[in-house]
Amino acid sequence: GDPWNRGPFPWGQEDRKLTELVRSLSRLRREHPALREGETGYLALDDDLLTMTRSCRSETLTILLNRGGSARTLAPGDAPRTDLLTGRQWDLEEAVSVPPETIMVLV
């Protein structure tokens, strides 16, 4: 019989935004080897913002996770960057603003 382990799931009332984020992250994992294998590096900037790098062969991705309630700004990098989740691009001299409660995957 059914052990009722799916009972708490909000059937018919799913969080659409969360469901879409999980789909997008799953797609990125399939498309980018660095998210499946290779090296992982962590740099915790403070209690609310985590920067993580994933590298494999010639690809390095930077993951930014802001769990806080306010936006955070990161200094300009040494190369142009694109958020793979939104398509937003930053120039070489442009700082990256990470909105509250947001994840970004930069390449």
In DSSP terms (H or I, runs of 4 or more residues), the helix count works out at 1
Please outline the major beta sheet: 4 strands, antiparallel
Radius of gyration: 17 Å
Strand content: 25-35%
What is the helix/strand order? Answer: HEEEEEEEE
In order across it, which strands form the biggest sheet? Answer: 1-2-3-8
DSSP, total strands: 8
| Beginning-to-end CA distance, first to last residue | 47 Å
What structural class do you assign from the helix and strand content?
A: alpha+beta
| Overall pLDDT score | 89
Give the helix proportion (percent range). 10-25%
Low-confidence stretches: none
| General form | globular
Would you kindly provide a written description of the structure presented here, covering whatever features stand out?
With 107 residues, the protein is an alpha+beta fold. Helices cover 15% and strands 35% of the residues. The chain contains one helix and eight strands. It has a four-stranded antiparallel β-sheet with strand order 1-2-3-8, with no helix packed on it. The chain is globular, with a radius of gyration of 17 Å.
